[in-house]
Amino acid sequence: MPVLQPIVNIAELLYQKGITDVVVSPGSRSAPLTLAVVRHPHLRVRVMADERSAGFVALGIAQQRQNPVAIICTSGSAVYNLAPAVAEAYFQQIPLLLLTADRPHEWLHQQDGQTIDQVHVFGNQVKRSYDLPADYTHPDSRWFIERSVNEAISLSRLYPAGPVHINVPLREPFYPAANESFQAERVRLIHTLPGSPTLSPETWHMLLRDWDTSERKLIAVGQLPRNQALLDVLTKISNELGVPIIGEIVSNLPVNDRFITHTDTFLSGISEQQAASLCPDLLITLGNSLLTRNLKTFFRQYPAARHWHIQPVVDRITDSFQSLTTLIPSEPLAFLEKLFADIDYQLFLQGDEDDDSHEFLNRWQQADRKAARLVEQTLSLANQSQYLTDWSAVQLVLEQVPDRSILHLANSMPVRYANLCGLTEQQAVSVSANRGVSGIDGCLSTAVGAALATDQLVTLVIGDVAFFYDRNALWSAPVPPNLRIILLNNDGGHIFRMIDGSSRQPELETYFETPHGYTARNTAADARIQYQIAAKPETLRALLPDFFRPGSQAKLLEIKTDKRINQEQFLAYKTQIKNLYPDN
């Protein structure tokens, strides 16, 4: 196959550049690309017939491996089906390499099948788009292809990581003859070395002056993968320097006696005077987006006088709270370790042991503990009931989720309920969620991808609408046996009963909640997944230990709840929040 040899060489370039996983959706136009990766001895190739699911499965693998995953699909509308996963990867900063087969461009608008304008089809949701030539005979074409693939893979990894698109026009014939050689040639690697930003001594002195002249400091952590070294330095900063550390379950901050994790509860309805007492002079942020509205609103309404945001490369200004004063180009862990070491040494030289230095931290911790007690009281009442609610079910699940496993949280209410419950430090569970674009599409597929990428147990907590919307994730490939699916089925989009606007509309059930009447029994049978169902607390408690045991099949536990009882519980909780501030 001499004409298509550069396409065969792409598979070798993927391997040589460190990509090991490829997700393929079957198609004819993409056959040369598919055969190239399938026949490569060192690439793991998985097949997903639905391109939308394929994109999210690749995303889940890349989340776990922190390494690009290649996706191959055929031409036409198939390419558009990758778009939701591409957008999520872009805003979550997950590296993907999109290899989309295409017809030669002269056939566009010529009434030929499966032909759309694929160049720049993903717009600004990818870091860059490349369009390869349709003719490979000239040496310059081969040089261009090799150079472009080298560049694209490197670019997907460089901060901020993200998806990169390579459009690949292909002419017939697509398939090699029986006696035709189909082996990669020697390829040329072009290494792109990452830069390491270093702050000058003058910059450090300026930052330390800001720290010294700011009486009240606070660190807020957005969505990040679990990193024990980061947790260790944040713990030292909190314990020894008296700095509140604020985060959420998607920040991978555990519930303990140091970190502040119940802000969504106690920041709801506080007075201006109370807010002023919690407002920092210096706010330090790191990580991606925050989950809860109340925390974001607080920082916007009561901005800090100084706001540092730490990110490895200053490619764009991230000013979510409209208060940014300093963008610091540094790896958060390295920056915080040096910051702590410098300040700790400075305090040692000064012999500073100010007893009032933790007053601001104590204020935040007291508010957090009061909010934690309110959540515990709400759930305690629910546990005395004969009915399960979505919230009480999530609590029971999180209490028994295995230590050092992986937890995926689907969007809408599951991630919010899990955030209210939290995970303990001893569990050491790694939490992931699609909080880049925060859509419900692809939550199941992403968890399937995560389970394919690890031997650890992967638990997904997902609502019914998100589950049924994405059940093609269970269609194509054998479902990995280390996957556990907790399905909260309340027969509709439960979140719309919690939102003040939609919950008051007469069209709520028909046009917002979309009731369906489905269960997952048949879906589980089709996918050869062990299926169980629970509708009462005692049933769920009895089923969970066996559900989490390792086995040769994936497992799905469907939890049936009543959306009206869910609503009553949540409204009662919101009413009790007002009792936190009886003088307001």
TrEMBL record:
Q: Which pathway is recorded for this entry?
A: Quinol/quinone metabolism; menaquinone biosynthesis; Quinol/quinone metabolism; 1,4-dihydroxy-2-naphthoate biosynthesis; 1,4-dihydroxy-2-naphthoate from chorismate: step 2/7
List each copy of the Thiamine pyrophosphate enzyme N-terminal TPP-binding domain by range.
10-120
Among the GO biological process terms of this entry, one is: menaquinone biosynthetic process
EC class? transferase
How, per the record, is the cofactor bound?
Answer: Binds 1 thiamine pyrophosphate per subunit.
InterPro entries assigned: MenaQ_synth_MenD, THDP-binding, Thiamin_PyroP_enz_TPP-bd_dom
EC number(s): the record gives 2.2.1.9
Cofactors required: thiamine diphosphate; Mg(2+); Mn(2+)
Chain ranges passing through the membrane = none
Per UniProt, the keywords (alphabetical) are: Magnesium, Manganese, Menaquinone biosynthesis, Metal-binding, Thiamine pyrophosphate, Transferase
**Sample GO molecular function, one term:** magnesium ion binding
> Which reaction is catalysed here?
isochorismate + 2-oxoglutarate + H(+) = 5-enolpyruvoyl-6-hydroxy-2-succinyl-cyclohex-3-ene-1-carboxylate + CO2
Mind telling me which Pfam families this protein's record contains? Answer: TPP_enzyme_N
Q: Which HAMAP family match?
A: MenD
Name the family the entry cites: Belongs to the TPP enzyme family. MenD subfamily.
Query: Assembly and interactions?
Result: Homodimer.
Give a short account of what the protein does. Catalyzes the thiamine diphosphate-dependent decarboxylation of 2-oxoglutarate and the subsequent addition of the resulting succinic semialdehyde-thiamine pyrophosphate anion to isochorismate to yield 2-succinyl-5-enolpyruvyl-6-hydroxy-3-cyclohexene-1-carboxylate (SEPHCHC).
PANTHER family annotated for this entry? 2-SUCCINYL-5-ENOLPYRUVYL-6-HYDROXY-3-CYCLOHEXENE-1-CARBOXYLATE SYNTHASE, PROTEIN PHYLLO, CHLOROPLASTIC
Q: What is this protein called?
A: 2-succinyl-5-enolpyruvyl-6-hydroxy-3-cyclohexene-1-carboxylate synthase
Origin species, per record, is Spirosoma arboris
Q: What is the lineage of its organism?
A: Bacteria, Pseudomonadati, Bacteroidota, Cytophagia, Cytophagales
